Amino acid sequence: MLRYPAGAPVPTTDGQLTVTVATLRLALLTWVPGHPLTRGDRGQREPAGTTLAQVHRALADYRVDEADRFHWVNPDATHLSVRPRTY
């Protein structure tokens, strides 16, 4: 089993782990130590992207009945054409 650092939820004043705001459920998570990525540093982007991809794969079959599912992107949509790199 892979493990990734993630902040634990902070209980509200009445002990709840989430609150409802309008129609959304929100949670406040504790800080996970680290540092922000440096803009333009390709050496930092690849490990971050790899980790994010691993998390997405690990959660691909996990379902929460009350959660809205992401509307998957149509890769053939004309507004998603590839632009040349500028860096």
What does this entry look like structurally?
- It is a single chain.
- About 20% of the residues lie in helices and about 5% in strands.
- The chain has one helix and two strands.
- It has one helix at about 40-60, and strands spanning about 20, 25.
- Strands 1-2 form a two-stranded antiparallel ribbon.
- The longest helix has 17 residues, at about 40-60.
- The mean pLDDT is about 80.
Quick structural gist:
The protein has 87 residues and is α+β, with helices and mostly antiparallel strands. It has one helix and two strands, in the order ββα.
**Widest β-sheet, arrangement of strands:** 1-2
Spans of at least 5 consecutive residues with low confidence: none
End-to-end distance, in Å?
37 Å
The average pLDDT is 81
- Compute the gyration radius: what is it? 18 Å
Largest sheet features: 2 strands, antiparallel
Strand content: 5-15%
SS-based class: alpha+beta
> Helical element count?
1
Order of secondary-structure elements: EEH
Q: What is the strand tally?
A: 2
Helix content: 10-25%
Please tell me what the overall shape is: extended
Helix-strand blueprint:
Elements: E1 19-21, E2 24-26, H1 42-58
Antiparallel strand pairs: 1-2
List keywords for this structure.
87 residues, alpha+beta, two-stranded antiparallel sheet
